[in-house]
C-alpha cells in the first residue's frame, strides 16, 4: 500500500464567481457531472455546512459518502474526505481551488487528492480519480463556452 496523489488543473471558460457558484454546491454533482446520477446530504443538513455528508451514486450504481471539511467563498476552496466508496482507497482527502484568470475573465481550477491504495489497484484508481476531476472541470467549462 502506497500513498497516491492526483493533481488536475484546467482553465475554465466561465468567470470565477459564476464557476464557483456551480462547483461550491457540495450536493450538486449530478447537476453538472456526467458520471453521477443522484446525491443527497444526510440528516437534512445544508450542503455548505462543514461536516455535512453527501451520499451519492454514479450511473453504474457505485456508491460514495464524502464529508465536507472546508468551504471558503473568499478563497474559492472546497475540501472533503471519502468516508465510504466503491473505490479501493483509504484515507482519501481532496481539495478543489479556483483562481481568477484576470486577462480573459476565465477561471483556473486545480483539484488534487491524496489517498492510500494497494499496488494492484493503483494505476486504475489514479486513472478513475483523474478522469473524475477532468470531467467535472470540462462539464462546468462547457456551460460557458460560446
TrEMBL record:
<dbReference type="InterPro" id="IPR023393">
    <property type="entry name" value="START-like_dom_sf"/>
</dbReference>
<protein>
    <submittedName>
        <fullName>MxaD family protein</fullName>
    </submittedName>
</protein>
<dbReference type="Pfam" id="PF10604">
    <property type="entry name" value="Polyketide_cyc2"/>
</dbReference>
<dbReference type="InterPro" id="IPR019587">
    <property type="entry name" value="Polyketide_cyclase/dehydratase"/>
</dbReference>
